[in-house]
Amino acid sequence: MSVSYKRSICWVRRDLRLFDHTALAEATYRSHEVFVVFVFDPTILDLLEDRAHLRVSFIHRSLQEMDRKLREQGSRLWVLLGNPATVIPQFAKEIQAEAVFASRDYEPFARRRDLTVQENLKLAGIEFLDFKDQITFDPHELATAEGNPFRVFTPFRKAWEKLFIADRDAAEAVSDLNKLARDDESIDYPMPSLKDLGFQEVELWLEPGEDAGRKRLANFASKLADYKAKRDFPALDQTSTLSVDFRFGTVSIREAIRLTLEHPSEGADSWRSELIWREFYQHILFHYPDVVDQTFQPQYRDIEYPGSKEDFEAWSEGRTGFPIVDAAMRCLNATGWMHNRLRMVVASFLTKDLLVDYRWGEAYFQRKLLDFDLASNNGGWQWSASTGADPQPYFRIFNPISQSAKFDSEGNFIRRWVPELADLEAPSIYFPALAAEFDLLTASVELGKTYPHPIVDHAIQRDRAIALLSKKPITES
DNA sequence: AGTTGCTTAGC
DNA sequence: CTAAGCAAC
Hints:
Layout: E1 5-12, H1 22-30, E2 31-40, H2 42-45, H3 54-72, E3 77-81, H4 84-94, E4 99-103, H5 108-123, E5 127-131, H6 153-167, H7 210-221, H8 227-230, H9 243-248, H10 253-262, H11 266-287, H12 309-317, H13 323-335, H14 340-353, H15 358-368, H16 374-385, H17 400-407, H18 412-417, H19 437-442, H20 458-470
Parallel strand pairs: 1-2, 1-4, 2-3, 4-5
Helix pairs in contact: 4-5, 6-11, 10-11, 11-16, 13-14, 14-16, 15-16
The structure holds a DNA duplex (11 and 9 nucleotides).
């Protein structure tokens, strides 16, 4: 029988939902009264340059929904402003809470923050309990036969599946909503507006909040069977777009895993494998937090990337002269989202064609992506740069033109985001620089005027990339 | 989660 | 001459 607390706090962070929430379920079972609390941390907010920030808007609107749903239960959400290391213990003392419940976070910054919060709570005799919520297995639950962390994806996935079949570890966490604290005017912390926080409301291309997220999941169920066959074609819009919900916890990862079991198919297996990639990178980040600043593979740590600021800017603004790259970057800039196939294409282009340090691209995605997640973003970029855990081999370089032909054969995705090329037919639209003069003329494309000349020669840059990355001996202590 | 260039089979 | 197969990057 677990300890019972009179009052406790469920501190939500990147788990912005009420359904299937492990920490909330645990809190309501082990306490008589639970206060659901969120903290806006100015030290994080101040780092964000863009005051019309997608993720801040998403969080804020998701919190408003949580507050509304909690009020339907006679409770509310308490939103604090300040350094969690100070305001969580302060609030806990104010309401005389005996414990703080939270979902475990695996990012280095979050781990340090939670340790400090835990220490400060301890000084006041308050417990801090964190629970596995955002991944299926915690980093210590999966290890190689030698007891080391997995560094290669396929053995990781096999171990994950084996343990999953043994444990069926995706049960729904049910909360006892009767235990939610009554809305009490004497403990008033009004929800700050976006303006109070120094931000503007932003139009989001997808609806924030738990209800919208679970609707996305339900809609995706009908696409699951075809996922394997269709996922790679950006113009088809057949991916789940649930990365956003896993980032903010508006959908439970367990609910997603359960969906793949309820609708078994090759597509379901393929999508679950993508979810396991996500967990793989969470584990990598936990076990090797240095990947935040440096390459996972030690032989690439002192590489000097010759790429220029000018080329990086052309890439980021979508004017490289390679239509699939430009379409993808303009889509990112306009919506805060990019199809996974295109994330690989543009990352390969930046690191292998432009020979720019992958960290520049990683930082750019961090700024722009609505679904930005440190573990997945770093993992994806290091995969593309060939510097990561189980990376793309350095000699396996995407050709942006053949990627267009394979995955956007009609050119429809390009047409959607690079309207100045809309009248070009495939295959000319893959690479106008090599299109027949007549085709360009009839499509009113003037290279260097209406659409840029290619900023590099792929064949030459490919050789340079292989030369740059093959020099180093592959030795490890 | 690829691309390239060379070899060879088939017409 | 083209397509398919294969090794190397």
